[in-house]
Amino acid sequence: MQVPAPFEYERATSVDQAIGLLERLGNSARLVAGGHSLLPMMKLRLANFEYLIDINDLHGELGYIRLGAGEVRIGAMTRHRELLESDALAEVFPIFRDAERVIADPIVRNRGTLGGSLCQADPSEDLSAVCTTLDASCVIRGPRNTERVVSMEEFHVGPYETAVADNEILTEIRIPVKPYASGSAYAKVERRAGDWAVVSAGAAIWLDAAGRIADARVGLAAVGPNTTGIPEISAALRGQEPAEALYELAGAIAARTCDPVTDTRGSADYKRHLADELTRRTLRTAVSRARS
Amino acid sequence: MTTVSERRETEFEDNDQKPVGFGRMLRKEDARLLRGRGRFVDDVQLPGMLHLAILRSPFAHASIVSIDTSAAEASPGVKAVVTGETLKGLGLAWMPTLSNDVQAVLATDKVRFQGQEVAFVVAEDRYQARDALELIDVEYDVLEPVIDVRKALEPDAPVIRTDLDGKTNNHVFDWETGDEEETNRVFAEADVIVKEDIVYPRVHPAPMETCGSVADFDPVEGKLRLWSTTQAPHAHRTLYAIVAGLPEHKIQVIAPDIGGGFGNKVPIYPGYVHSIVGSIVTGKPVKWMEDRSENLISTGFARDYIMRAEIAATRAGKILAIRTNVLADHGAFNGTAAPVKYPAGFFGVFTGSYDLKAAHCKMTAVYTNKAPGGVAYACSFRITEAVYLVERIVDALSYELRMDPAELRLKNFIQPEQFPYTTKTGWVYDSGDYEPTMRLAMEMAGYEDLRKEQALKRAKGELMGIGIAFFTEAVGAGPRKNMDILGLGMADGCELRVHPTGKAVVRLSVKTQGQGHETTFAQIIAEELGIPPADIDVVHGDTDNTPFGLGTYGSRSTPVSGAAAALVARKVRDKAKLIASAMLEVSVADLDWVKGVFQVKGDPGKSVTIQDIAMRAHGAGDLPDGMEGGLEAQICYNPSNLTYPHGAYICVVDIDPGTAEVKVRRFIAVDDCGTRINPMIIEGQVHGGLTDGVGMALMEMISFDEDGNCLGASLMDYLIPTALEVPDWETGFTVTPSPHHPIGAKGIGESATVGSPPAIVNAVVDALKPFGVRHADMPLTPSRVWDAMRGQATPPI
Predict the structure, then answer these.
(1) Are A191 and B130 within 8 A, CB to CB?
(2) B339-356 tens-digit pLDDT
(3) CA-based nearest residue to B537, from B551, B525, B529
(4) Mean per-residue pLDDT for A234-248?
(5) Is the Cβ pair B127, A3 closer than 8 Å?
(6) How far is B783 from chain A (nearest CA, A)?
(7) In B140-260, which residue ranges form alpha helices assigned H by DSSP?
(8) Contact between chains at A266 and B289 (C-beta distance less than 8 A)
(9) What's the pLDDT score for residue B15?
(10) Share of chain B above pLDDT 90, in %
């Protein structure tokens, strides 16, 4: 049996109390939410923290999906299962349900959280790709009620590294709802159900009244140091009539601009190919959803 | 024929039959196991028990310069820290492997694979033991590792086994079978020769329960009790006696419930010995339970064969000969689990199910800086590799001949009248009737319709593949004149005692790891004696309470121990008949046996049951002259031959042309394991083996980087399939009894693991036919399939 090194443990009772603890303990402490990444790393002794601050009791405070007119707000403690099962969220952003269906397994989804997924900052992480695709921003709270809002690009500063400081907590994700007919989709290639992505892609499309592309975004996972948005695709698609040739163009841009490495999940060439293939597939689905 | 849909309708009905003998019934052990009331090694808690953790090498190849244990010894709760130097003083630093090599119990001179045992700590709890490992300071001098098996024999390759006197290279053995000259002659005359380089990568059995032990040495009695995860408790006891110098009668090995073995729990691992040493040193019981990473990086792997296969045939599709050259990676110590005279296991059955004119194999085995093993991972000693080789190369031949792979196989099968059939490599197949098995599988699959569907799909650019594998296995090792492990003959004992009230206890030498022995063996006794299975207690796994035998692996429980159980029951029945004749006052010749009852011929109303007889045997009444009381018997069964189960498997896959993902759509498995004892248990074994096959074919591989770091050290990296990767299994059967087995049973435990990988790979390769693909190696991950689609298939090592 794998056993972690000694650590002290405290259950936070409020966000502010958790921040207070972080303020005091600095980088010797770590927050634990679902724990599905952190606990295995601790048991393998790849991660050794003196203190664990359990924030599962903050689900009441930070577990929510709120749909507003111009924005969807999702609390950082919202569990995968809640994201998967929310019909309201699937109605606005079907990409969430697409992604949640291929994230891990029901046992993990019962515990794992949106905030935990983003803060793990694994380059292959699915919800990070979803949030990148949807141009989400991240609300980070610090001591003395300070709060700052950063974009996904700013949030992820490298593999397993985020903009969240030692005394801060990610509390909320905000996703803009644009005044257009929208569609979104997610696709993932994995070696086995529940595995990390070999490559995955998200796409979101906004169509104007004339049926032209008002905006389009593509987010890729597992083909670079972090999940990546591809502005060049957005620029190429805006103002255009959706068409197969356009998806091909977008796929080609995705393949050209991504930066995969060869590993046991697949060769760099294959991953580049998937970036192309999955970009085309998700754009196609997103457009058909935007039209329906 | 049993199909999935048919079985579902009848499952519960069947299970209510409560057969007194063979038939479908729920497993007796499941009441315990499904309720979480099983008792596994890690459940063993003894008063004062200490915990052991092992420090392992981070390097694949390095000299040990020094080890400083002082900080660890001073760590809280630590009772002992033991290094190779300590063991050297006790003469315990090395131990024999199952293949007459030696393996380090703790490294003394150098480490030879990443994960090798370097020191161990015994402490009051497992946390303290693990914490103290971090305080052991080992200075290594890193050496160049031998990782590429193809370069292991190059003259300038570093020598791994410097511990062996005079060893100047990494050669383990050469082995040869068949007639080279005759084979070359047949090849020279053949119309068609097809050649492929075929790799069966290193895989790991990865049982759900990892390996572990609890050792309790009682200094007063001088007795060692060892609870351990072992598939072969008796063989282990004898080896401990030899290694540790303890008298055999003072060692009790107990294998409690075992959470899967698949060959992984056949060898003796250093950790078991550590716990014994730990208990002797501290005077307390000591538990060692390895974690998942330790299991994957250090315990017995399987396969790792690089095979060059060649097949010769006529233009009309008559297969003439097969020859092969194999390079076998045995890791740092030769720990192959196989009968001693069979260094390549039963690889000699690579001639498959076909009537050949000639065959030849040459094999070279080498040492590398990788974990030792070569266990029978559900492969009955390298038959998995052999069957994969022949079924893959036969498919490559069908590709070249443009002949349907089913037709090619049907054309070349050994015919029923040729049995017993001696292969060109000397194996005597006991019985077989291959064509009906093949035809049944084709009928269940709807083979012709599948080919039509495939043609339509190909026209549309869709990728659908149909793969066939037909296998013959050699299981149930084995005849003691040929087969032994470290001098221990591969026979098995069995004891049966019928209690006065007609209930019984049967004691076995084999040991279940989940296969359902407590049910199957009760059913064998029930069939022979007419005592209901519920009334028969099956005792196994404890060397103090069971007869000697070599254990459960290589599908040998039913072929060997099952035969022993049937014969011991017949011995009891013979005695019961004498008692019945006295009770009924007729001669034995006037008695008929109707399962569970002796009747007087022509007067069935005059009868005694086996229960009546049991009471008489233990009672105060008269017994026949000279007969002792009691109703019991014992036996040691020495099989006269192996048994040879066969099967026809058909797999249907769909491949996404855009992503190269493989989906196994259907899998039809028709098995012939001779007489079937409990069809539900057989189907369960087949389902498990097929799932295993999906894993090996599509995702499993223990790989290493160039420094010898194991890249499969967790189940996140070493993928095993889930329910989502497998289809509804469609199983069927034919029955060709073994002529030499008392009940005609042949063993089923490994058939599906042996037969399914080639069926799946053949299906994938078939799907890729439009791309001109004739071969692609496992594991067929999406990336590797995509390479194959572009004509860039590469071996995985």
Answers:
(1) no
(2) 889 999 999 999 999 999
(3) B525
(4) 97
(5) yes
(6) 5
(7) 180-189, 233-244
(8) no
(9) 54
(10) 93
**Burial, B667: exposed, middle or buried (Cβ in 10 Å; 0-12, 13-18, 19+)?**
buried
Task: Kindly determine whether residue B660 and residue A270, on different chains, have CB atoms separated by under 8 Å.
Answer: yes
The mean pLDDT value for B308-320 works out to: 98
CA distance B266 to B264: 6
Q: What is the mean pLDDT of chain B?
A: 95
The reply to whether domains A59-176 and A181-291 share a CATH topology is no
Residues on chain B touching A40 (C-beta within 8 angstroms): 714, 716
pLDDT at B242 over 90: no
Other beta carbons within 10 Å of A66: 12
Give yes or no for a contact between B448 and B437, defined as CB atoms under 8 angstroms apart.
Answer: no
Instruction: Round the CA-based radius of gyration of chain A to a whole number and report it.
Output: 19
Alpha-carbon span B585 to B569, nearest angstrom: 23
Domain A59-176 part of CATH 2.40.33.20:
no
Residues B519, B479: contact at Cβ < 8 Å?
A: no
Mean pLDDT, residues B20-47 taken together: 95
Cis peptide before B96 (omega within 30 of 0): no
Predicted confidence at residue B661, as pLDDT, reads 98
As given in the structure block, the two tokens for residue A172 are 């909320």
Q: How much is the pLDDT for B16? A: 53
Q: What phi and psi, each to the nearest 5 degrees, are found at residue A71?
A: -160, 145
Percentage of chain A lying above the pLDDT 70 cut: 100
How do residues B119-162 score in pLDDT, each as one tens digit? Answer: 999 999 999 999 999 999 999 999 999 999 999 999 999 999 99
Under an 8 A CB cutoff, do A191 and B781 touch? yes
- To the nearest whole Å, the CA of A1 is away from the closest chain B CA by 4
**In the predicted model, what is the mean pLDDT of residues B318-340?**
95
| Interface list for A 218-277 with B (CB within 8 A) | 264-267, 270-271, 273-274, 277
The answer to whether B427 and B356 have CB atoms below 8 angstroms apart is no
Question: How far apart (Å, rounded) are the C-alpha atoms in residues A231 and B150?
Answer: 47
pLDDT at B2: 43
pLDDT of residue B9: 44
Read off the pLDDT band of B229 (50, 70, 90).
Answer: very high
Select the residue from B135, B656, B778, B783 to test the A interface by mutation, using most A Cβ atoms within 10 A. Answer: B783
SS3 B52: strand
Q: Is the ipTM of this complex over 0.85?
A: yes
* Other CB atoms within 10 A of residue B371 CB: 26
pLDDT at B5: 45
Which helix (H) or strand (E) is B4 found in, with range? Answer: helix B4-15
From A1, A45, A198, residue closest to B782, measured CB to CB: A198
* Domain map (residue ranges) of chain A: 8-57, 59-176, 181-291
* pTM beyond 0.90, yes or no: yes
Residue A285 has pLDDT above 50, yes or no: yes
Q: Which two tokens stand for residue A63?
A: 């577990």
Strand runs labelled E in B500-544: 504-508, 536-539
Query: 2.60.120.10, 3.90.1720.10, 3.30.390.50, 2.60.40.10: which CATH number matches A181-291?
Result: 3.30.390.50
Q: Does A195 touch chain B (CB under 8 A)?
A: yes
Instruction: Show the tokens assigned to A42.
Output: 């601790």
Size of interface A-B (CB pairs under 8 A): 66
User: CB B787 to CB A278 under 8 A?
Assistant: no
CB B341 within 8 A of CB B175: no
Q: Which residue in the set B292, B717, B725 is minimally distant from A2, CB to CB?
A: B292
* Closest chain A residue to the Cα of B779, Cα to Cα: A191
Lowest-pLDDT choice from A227-236, A246-255, B648-657: A227-236
**CATH architecture for segment(s) A8-57:** 2-Layer Sandwich (3.30)
Closest-CA distance, A273 to chain B, in angstroms, reads: 8
Is A144 at the interface with chain B, CB within 8 A?
Answer: no
